[in-house]
């Protein structure tokens, strides 16, 4: 293969690739319909010219046929008058017009056939153009839908790295952090409140303990004042069980305070 052949092939391949990439289905379909309509206009003009030529030939044929009939009648009239020379001349003229009419009839038949063929071609082309227009609209709608789908898919694919989506993700993280802080603050507030109530409860316990001590002291002092004449051993014997009970109650209170 020569160098020029290789260069020619490379150039043609690049041109074909550029043309293929530049082809827009909607524009190509529109241009195809326009080309078909231009062909239809040319075909209509050709049919009109053929019909006009057919009509002229028909008129010429009719005129030649009429002249042939007229010279036939003249030849008969001349023969009736006894003028054979004039009759012969009339028949000669009649023969000429008859030959012309025969030739025109052959031409007329050919033109009639051509006109019929052109008319059928015109009707077929009009049908194809109508079908092409319908198909063009359908293909344009499909092409538009495919382009819209491609654009939508591209937007969906780019949403993962889109700045707007990244902003949403950052704001979501901040909201989670705020919720965590709020929950921690609520837990701390609840713990502090619990400790305050425990302090209050422990204060009440101290007051109750002090009141119980006062009652015990008052109870232990009353028997000594009301019974001055009693002996010491009896008093100690009576007080011992009371001290044991108090110690047991104090021990229970300590355990309850430790459990708190």
From TrEMBL:
<keyword id="KW-0175">Coiled coil</keyword>
<protein>
    <submittedName>
        <fullName>PspA/IM30 family protein</fullName>
    </submittedName>
</protein>
<feature type="compositionally biased region" description="Low complexity">
    <location>
        <begin position="230"/>
        <end position="241"/>
    </location>
</feature>
<feature type="coiled-coil region">
    <location>
        <begin position="115"/>
        <end position="188"/>
    </location>
</feature>
<dbReference type="InterPro" id="IPR007157">
    <property type="entry name" value="PspA_VIPP1"/>
</dbReference>
<feature type="region of interest" description="Disordered">
    <location>
        <begin position="215"/>
        <end position="245"/>
    </location>
</feature>
<feature type="coiled-coil region">
    <location>
        <begin position="54"/>
        <end position="81"/>
    </location>
</feature>
<dbReference type="Pfam" id="PF04012">
    <property type="entry name" value="PspA_IM30"/>
</dbReference>
<comment type="similarity">
    <text>Belongs to the PspA/Vipp/IM30 family.</text>
</comment>
């Amino acid at each position: 293969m020569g160098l020029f052949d290789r260069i020619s092939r490379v150039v043609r391949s690049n041109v074909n690739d550029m043309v293929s990439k530049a082809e827009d289905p909607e524009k190509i379909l529109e241009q195809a319909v326009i080309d078909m309509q231009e062909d239809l206009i040319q075909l209509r003009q050709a049919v009109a010219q053929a019909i006009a030529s057919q009509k002229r030939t028909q008129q010429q044929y009719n005129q030649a046929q009429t002249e042939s009939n007229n010279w036939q009648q003249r030849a008969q009239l001349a023969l009736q008058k006894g003028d054979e020379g004039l009759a012969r001349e009339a028949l000669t003229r009649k023969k000429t017009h008859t030959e012309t009419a025969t030739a025109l009839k052959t031409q007329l038949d050919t033109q009639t056939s051509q006109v019929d063929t052109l008319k059928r071609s015109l009707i077929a082309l009009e049908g194809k153009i109508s079908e092409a227009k319908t198909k063009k609209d359908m293909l344009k709608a499909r092409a538009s839908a495919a382009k819209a789908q491609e654009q939508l898919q591209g937007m969906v694919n780019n949403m993962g790295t889109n700045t707007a989506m990244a902003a949403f993700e950052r704001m979501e993280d901040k909201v989670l952090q705020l919720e965590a802080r709020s929950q921690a603050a609520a837990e701390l507030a609840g713990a502090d409140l619990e400790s305050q109530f425990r302090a209050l409860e422990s204060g009440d316990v101290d007051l109750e303990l002090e009141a119980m001590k006062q009652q015990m002291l008052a109870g232990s002092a009353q028997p000594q004042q009301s019974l001055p004449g009693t002996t010491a051993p009896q008093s100690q014997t009576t007080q011992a069980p009371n001290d044991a009970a108090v110690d047991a109650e104090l021990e229970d209170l300590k355990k309850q305070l430790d459990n708190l």
